[in-house]
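Quick start: read one record
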Amino acid sequence: MGAVPVPGVEGRDLGRAGHGEAAALRRRLRPPGVLRSAVATPAVRPALSRRRRAGLTGHPAGSGPIHGCVLWRSRETSEADMTMTKAFPAAESADLPEGVVVQPRRYEFEGLEDIPQYWFAHNPITTHVENAFSILIPPGERFFIRSVRHYADQVTDPDTQELIRAFCQQEALHTKAHNELNASFKRFGIDVDREIAYADRSMAVIARILSPKSQLAVTAFLEHLTATGAHMMFQEADFMEEKMHPEMLRFWRWHAAEELEHKAVAFDLYHRIGGGYVRRVLCAVATAVLLAVPFVRIARRMMHEDPHNVTAAEREEARAIDRKLTRAQLKPILGFFKRDFHPWNAHDEAYLREWYAADETAAQRS
């Protein structure tokens, strides 16, 4: 089929256009109603060019078996099963890999009351650890939104403004969904209100002692942690399908996909406003220490107040799962401390395209 002429585009070389101009031209070339995520793209996109990454960041770019049986078998997911709807317009940018958009989606639980108490590997330890992480997410997301919005009025580039808008909307929707999930833990005897108040105080300490620029550096690091966990959700897809309750699997995959979509927004903004390497790594170390305390404390309190007597087999299985997931995440996490680090050095485009194809069709409905 021959090329369709578009007024004002004939003869233009998208490769030589500026990033913002190229993105605008690509949007004009796309058929109406088609997102970038729906456009056929290669299975693996080449790395971002050194020149682009330098322009973005302000610096040059340079197993053993798991104990226990198969626990959950994921069923085929039809459109009728999906619980996501688009909540706001997607943000497109030349700073994103081809085929990726930042699309805020509203997640609505189906059968939240049917999720078992020990939804991760039927194991109380692993479940309490994941629940503690969920408790920390809403205060963290609110911190991220504030740190990014503080500098939003300094941004004049339309693409970046759209990314910031979509980032904040995604994080707000994550907060809403996790608040709903966390409230459901009360039926298991967990003092959710106490733990949330403690998590809020922990994030408030960081906000109180750090400057706005350092808070943005903290956000960039924590976004890297969540993106690393999100990458693992897709990399270890078979394992997660075996170990997680199907509703929780769909929920965490939704959250993971959106974390991958916006994983570079805070990092790029930090460098746009003049943030440097030393501040970035010092804030990362300080954050890891400061947030380890509430995370461990919340998880330990949940375990201590759970009347279930943990068996030796459950402890061994929890250790095996912890070893597997730690191995999967440790090296990518440490990549943040490289001077030429950029979030899109980890190419998650293929995971996102796979998720779009499997799940986003149903997410088109409103």
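The longest helix spans residues 277-305.
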